[in-house]
Amino acid sequence: MLTSRCAEVVKLAPAIASRKAAAIPSRSHFPEIALNSMNQLVTVILSVVAIFAFVFCLIFLAVFYRYFWLWIQSVTTGARVGIFDLIGMLFRRVDARTIVRSKIMAVQAGIQDEDLTSKALEAHYLARGNVPQVIRALVAARKSRQITLSFREAAAIDLAGRDVLDAVQTSVYPKVIDCPPRNASSAFLDAIAKDGIQLKVKARVTVRANLQRLIGGATEETIIARVGQGIVSAIGSAESHKVVLENPDMISKEVLKSRLDDQTAFEIVSIDIADIDVGENIGARLQADRAEADTRVARAKAESRRAEAVAIEQEMIAKIEESRAEVVAAEANVPIAIADALQQGKMKIMDYYKLRNITADTEMRQSIAGTSTTGPSASQRQGAQ
């Protein structure tokens, strides 16, 4: 049985060998397989590139369509803002419409400034500046033919927080400031002449913006305060209020001499006195108050002297009482002395009675006259008080 199996294997061996030989390709077939693999890889790569190119074209066309009309406006007006600059503004998050229209406005107005470029406008926009406001200010300055304003100066004024367009307009058309302002607590400026008469003044100050000192210069509040100070000083130096009423322009001349617009953002053109009224007589009131104060001082001094006199009077009354006490003490020794004199025979009884009669007569006269050699009695002192 084993022998039969071996014989079958020997018979099938050639057939198996022929099948394996047929399964293994020959060397002549290898280049064809490699070429097919390369073709497939190239096809995939080209497909991916084509997809990316298609997407890029779509994006480019969308962006180009978005900025096409802006680019056309820039080219036709000579603003010189390229399409790639517009695309760059998209990535820098800059409003291209604002930049292009501002540049067109400047070019059409004939502004020739080397610093006025699209890059400079973008930088000012990114610094949160008001680009259209700056360009309008430059246009207004050029049209006025009186103001020389560069883009750098206008941009600096705008970034400083000032309204550059309003400053240019104020420089071309002077501005009128009320002194005191309309919203002030008092409608007039109060000043007093040397004669003590109060004058109430209302002034109007015409100012022009000073663009060179607009950055760092004082504002309208400083102008109003300085003008008010100058008016008060001018009226205070006048000898009489009548002189001020006769020549109100003296106030303007004195105030203008003081150079009140130094270190301010404005230049004072003129100072006009709009209204002047006569107030109270402050000098007389002060004199009356001084007289009343002097009266109070005099009363206080008189009261002090009266108190001193009363104290002296009380002191003298005390001294009188002391003297009376001494007299009473001395009178108490008189009977003893009389008794000694009678005992010693130095005095007779008739002399004693004469002495008594004289004493009684003296007391009677004193009681009639209301006087006493020993001073006022207690009842008299109470009546005097």
Summarize the structure.
The chain is an alpha+beta fold and 385 residues long.
CATH superfamily of the domain at 172-285: Band 7 domain
Classification by helices and strands: alpha+beta
The major β-sheet equals: 4 strands, antiparallel
Strand content: 5-15%
Mean pLDDT over the full residue set: 79
The first-to-last residue Cα distance is 180 Å
The CATH topology of the domain at 172-285 comes to: Tetrahydropterin Synthase, Chain A
What is the architecture of the domain at 172-285 at the second tier of CATH? 2-Layer Sandwich
* Sequence stretches where pLDDT stays below 50 over 5 or more residues: 20-30, 380-385
Tell me the helix content.
Answer: 55-70%
Shape: elongated
- How many strand units? 4
Rounded radius of gyration (Å): 61 Å
Number of helices: 14
- What is the H-and-E element order? HHHHHHHHEEEHHHEHHH
What is the level 1 CATH name of the domain at 172-285?
A: Alpha Beta
List the helices and strands and how they pair.
Elements: H1 2-23, H2 30-77, H3 83-91, H4 96-108, H5 118-126, H6 131-144, H7 151-159, H8 164-172, E1 175-179, E2 189-192, E3 197-209, H9 220-236, H10 241-246, H11 249-257, E4 266-281, H12 282-344, H13 349-369, H14 378-384
Antiparallel strand pairs: 1-3, 2-3, 3-4
